[in-house]
């Protein structure tokens, strides 16, 4: 399997710096990448990493999915168990503490391969801690590293996204859930969804086929609406259904044309539509990002609309919207 990976792995790196002791869990935020590098290399390394981590959420201000934070090489030992960790340097000047750290981690021969060869990007997992993603970036120039990364961006992003999802699912679902509510929904409506502890039913309207769940601080809302049969067969109808949804069900909420977008998507085992954009209140100065999924399920012969909203003024929202997305992706119907 490793031989198929588009990213070069130094097996000797594992021998040099892993050890055989049992590793503890990684630390830190799942949406932060800690980069150990000298200040003189920071701009170039940031440019390199932005080639990989370019996903942005509009809240309406643009917000990256992964925050890149630079730390001096002298902080390496204190931060080596971080969930997402990179060590990076440009050039072969060993007076540069970042370069010196890279050489010490790789050993002389492997370090020289990053300077004189074509292998400038190293990626490993569980290097210093369980659940850790670890990268080394090293080359004579920024362009050398970018050239080595080209074509591997999607694979690297997928590894980070999978790690984020695994850790966040554990946080959301592994401890305590509202299983009583989940079971009740399945009995009454033939569908259910994983509901984290602390979430409440805000509104439940069986006559309207609509359930609204949420929690406070940050305000995270998930609602599910369903209709019999296939009611959104194409993008135009799905966009109209999505656009009218908040005023029909929430009453005082509408979508803004800014960044309103609909795309065909795969949602779990269903094909459907993914709608994203910005919501705003008609009564107060409130708003934030939203996601909607519209899918048709042949088992229950229904069209489902799963809507996600967040309100968290003045704070980063991307990690909380991604949590909502994980909750949405726990959706299931009877006989699954």
Automatic annotation (TrEMBL):
Pfam families: DUF4837. PROSITE patterns: PROKAR_LIPOPROTEIN. This is DUF4837 domain-containing protein.
């Amino acid at each position: 399997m490793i031989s198929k990976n588009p990213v070069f792995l130094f097996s000797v790196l594992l021998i040099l710096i892993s050890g055989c002791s049992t590793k503890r869990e990684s630390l830190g935020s799942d949406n932060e990448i800690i980069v150990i590098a000298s200040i003189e290399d920071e701009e170039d390394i940031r440019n390199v990493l932005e080639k990989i981590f370019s996903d942005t959420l509009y809240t309406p201000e643009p917000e990256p999915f992964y925050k890149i934070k630079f730390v001096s090489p002298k902080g390496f030992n204190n931060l080596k168990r971080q969930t997402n960790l990179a060590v990076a340097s440009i050039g072969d000047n060993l007076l540069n503490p970042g370069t010196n750290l890279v050489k010490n981690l790789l050993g002389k021969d492997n370090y020289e391969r990053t300077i004189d060869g074509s292998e400038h990007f190293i990626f490993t997992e569980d290097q210093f801690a369980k659940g850790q993603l670890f990268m080394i970036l090293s080359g004579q120039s920024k362009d050398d590293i970018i050239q080595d990364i080209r074509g591997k961006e999607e694979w690297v992003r997928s590894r980070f996204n999978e790690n984020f999802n695994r850790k966040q699912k554990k946080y959301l679902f592994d401890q305590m859930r509202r299983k009583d509510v989940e079971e009740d929904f399945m009995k009454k409506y033939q569908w259910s969804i994983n509901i984290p502890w602390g979430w409440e039913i805000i509104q439940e309207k069986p006559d309207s086929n609509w359930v609204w769940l949420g929690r406070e601080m940050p305000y995270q809302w998930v609602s599910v609406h369903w209709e019999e049969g296939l009611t959104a067969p194409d993008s135009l109808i799905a966009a109209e259904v999505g656009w009218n949804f908040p005023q029909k069900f929430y009453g005082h909420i509408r979508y803004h044309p800014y960044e309103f977008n609909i795309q065909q998507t795969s949602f779990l085992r269903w094909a459907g539509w993914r709608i994203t954009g910005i919501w705003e209140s008609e009564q107060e100065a409130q708003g934030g990002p939203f996601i909607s999924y519209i899918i048709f399920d042949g088992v229950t012969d229904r069209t489902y609309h799963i809507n996600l909203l967040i309100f968290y003024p003045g704070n980063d929202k991307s990690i909380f919207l991604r949590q909502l997305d994980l909750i949405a992706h726990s959706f299931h119907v009877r006989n699954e």
